[in-house]
Specification:
Number of helices: 3
Number of domains: 1
CATH class: Mainly Alpha
Protein name: MCM7 factor
Structural class: alpha+beta
Organism: Hippolais icterina (icterine warbler)
Largest sheet: 3 strands, antiparallel
Oligomer: single chain
Helix content: 40-55%
Strand content: 5-15%
Strand order of the largest sheet: 1-3-2
Pfam family, one: WHD_MCM7
Length: 68
């Protein structure tokens, strides 16, 4: 099945974090996600969704995503 864009984005962020990865650079992630066809709006929606679920946090300067 084809995952929702937010699910696919979250999966890619986890991949970028590597095994045991706790965080990922947001600019790097945006570059990779853009190359895979995701729009900035889709990424923002996914980040907001998963922040609301307390699965990840984006720092105030929006430079890093940390997995909770």
């Amino acid at each position: 099945r084809c995952p929702r864009p937010s699910e696919a984005i979250f999966g890619i962020l986890r991949e970028l974090g590597g095994p045991g990865g706790r965080s990922v650079s947001l600019p790097q992630a945006l570059q990779v996600l853009g190359a895979r066809g995701f729009t900035p709006g889709q990424v923002s929606e996914a980040l907001a969704e998963y922040e609301g679920l307390n699965v990840l946090q984006v720092n105030p300067s929006r430079s890093r995503v940390t997995f909770v």
